[in-house]
Amino acid sequence: MSMEPESDRGAVRIRAGGSFWQNLTQRHRDAAGKAWARLRQAPLSAAFGVLLIAFAWLLPLMVHWLERNLAGAAGDLAGSHGAHVFLKVEQDEAAATAIAERWRVAEADLETRVISRDEGLRELAELPGFRGIDAVVGDNPLPVVVSIDLADPARLEALLDDWRKDPAVDFVQSDARLKRKLRHVQEFVAAAAWVAWLLALAGALLISIHLSRLAVNADRDEISVSFWLGADDAHIRRPLLYGGMLQGFIGASLAAILVLALVAATHRALVEFSQQFASRIELLGPDPRTLLAVVVAAVVLGWLGAFVCTSVDLGQLGQTREDIE
User: Fold this and answer.
1) Contact 308, 296 (CB under 8 A)
2) Nearest 5°: CA angle at 195, between 192 and 199?
3) Domain extents in the chain
4) Which residues pair with 15 in a beta bridge?
5) What is the pLDDT along the chain (325 residues), one digit of tens a residue?
6) Residue 219 to residues 35, 171, 193: CA-CA distances in angstroms?
7) Helix segments in the chain, DSSP class H
8) CA–CA distance, 97 with 83 (Å, rounded to integer)
9) Which of 20, 54, 156, 310 gives the lowest tally of CB atoms within 10 Å of its CB?
10) Exposed, middle or buried: residue 77 (CB in 10 Å: 0-12, 13-18, 19+)?
């Protein structure tokens, strides 16, 4: 025996027969179908709610992406112990070799390599924006470069300060100061990431409560009738819980897609920027585990917001019934 009344908000089946698990599965299936039907009946309202949830998660995901790349860049630069000393144009390779030998004798553990004008031109031709320049340039205008490698960053920075005063030196390119600044920026972004995650959690929960409140107000008459006819709290609450979970899932998934689209759109420009440094910087996208955790958290918060909202309303209805009785 089964009664299967249909409503315009989705099928609601009341089964007298069947096993416990069959009935439980059917109740949850009906609740999920009713929640999905509610979203489809008010597409603009549902889209607005989904966008609110998506933007709540978008900021911490972007900060996470920035922090992940800063940490990766700091790690890549940490393995770089060198610098490039650009000599003045009038210095030839023989003079550069003599200068490099003088520096190597004066400082223990110092490794030097002279990069000729032709070699420098070939390396320049491999950079974005300069491809093929070695085939069209006439007289090579590049200076001779001395590549330096020293494991101790403090000693290297002191040596570079002295070499900048050498009359044969034009300028020095080093990642030492950049590494120090990058470490401070990374610490700041890491602290900001914690704040962004906390704000996202609170914001997503408040948005879920608000959206559930709107759903309850829209179906208040139906909920009141079901309550007075003796429907249990779980039967009334279940479609709203599924609605909160659906909106949380769709909103967090949309936020993840937007972040991935942003990464894809800016990847080429960031790659070209990273090639300007002495060491190779590997660019990273958002951590897939973080994206999955955001989706799970959004689903849980959607359920929690709907639970809080419906508990308040059901408590008020219960108190009204007790007062009448």
Assistant:
1) no
2) 140
3) 28-76+182-319, 82-150
4) 2
5) 343 444 444 444 444 455 777 777 887 787 778 878 877 887 888 888 889 999 999 989 999 888 888 777 766 665 555 778 888 888 888 888 888 888 888 887 788 888 887 777 677 666 655 566 655 565 666 788 888 877 777 777 788 888 888 888 888 877 666 677 777 888 888 888 899 999 999 999 999 888 888 877 777 667 666 666 666 667 778 888 888 899 999 999 999 999 999 888 877 776 666 665 545 566 777 889 999 999 999 999 999 988 888 777 666 655 454 444 4
6) 12, 72, 39
7) 20-41, 43-78, 93-106, 117-125, 133-136, 153-163, 176-218, 220-228, 233-274, 288-324
8) 16
9) 20
10) buried
The Cα 58–Cα 203 span in angstroms is 12
The residue type found at 209 is I
Q: In CATH, which of 3.30.420.40, 3.90.1150.10, 3.30.70.270, 3.30.70.3040 is domain 82-150?
A: 3.30.70.3040
Which pairs from 212-216 meet CB under 8 Å and 24+ separation? 212/240, 212/243, 212/244, 212/305, 212/306, 212/308, 212/309, 212/310, 213/309, 214/45, 214/49, 215/38, 215/240, 215/243, 215/306, 216/240, 216/309, 216/310, 216/313
Neighbouring C-alpha atoms within 13 Å toward the C-beta of 17:
4
* Owner of token pair 């009141």: 224
